[in-house]
Amino acid sequence: MKKRKRWPRNEALYNQVQENEFLNFFEYVKWLGFKVCKNVKMRNYISCLLIWHKFPNLSARRAKSFLLFLRKFKIINATIPCFKTLCNYRAEPIIGNILDELIIESSKPLSIIECDFATDATGIRTNLFSSWYSIRCQKEIKRRDHLTIHITTGVKSNIVTALNVETKSGNDNKIFREHVNKTAENFKINEWSGDGRYWCKDNCKKINEVGAKPYFKVWKNWSGKSRGCMPWKIMNLESKNNPEEYGKHYHKRSNVESTNHSKKVIHGNKVYSRLDSSRINEETLRWINHNINVLNRAKYEWKINPKFMA
Question: Residue ranges of the domains in the chain?
């Protein structure tokens, strides 16, 4: 059987990144907590939640046991609350604001190298099943509930700059424009790519407003007219007249698929909470841990030390 071709990589660098993952993880969690949470109690809870969700299959009780183990050997200094208290805090919708800040702060250090971005959506399964499918089809078949995750990533490092966790699908283009605004606050944007779901004039206008160039999958039914949006027409004409060159820019969005795969493999591809607010916060915590993983890689590959570590 013919061997599968592998892309060459720096094995020494890869080993260094992997071997130092957990050493840097606890440091980044501590300093991110200091950066975002001024309240000591909340900082302790956020740190405990991040460490818990670093491990996808760890129950709340076993998570407390692990946290106590880390504290005993002075790896962390946080006060460890009751496992039920941790679950209650995770269910609070208000901590979503803190988690959004953590996504932003954990992505900022990569503004030095990132200028091209891509957006995509993926699904995350849950342990719950809806009954509407059974009633509609008059069959005893249940459909598993899913979360819809919208992410925007830098195509070089796979850092997540904006994130939306939704319990229902829809509002793709509205969320897309929110991501453009959030990313533009901390990054200089040159290109932005996305698949056919984001192919609309308002998205092209928004990207043009921040000084970037859009690259979307162009639908075959395009009429050839701009109808008041010149960036839309330029993008579509370039796609049809020079598909090979256009494809080089558009297919940068493939890095989003790599980001989704990496997160699901390392930090889990399902959520275990039952409340909607808990599900959203649980999944967001996992994406923050993904960003911390990227920072660990950036430290050795691009010699980037985050400012929040100072």
Answer: 19-309
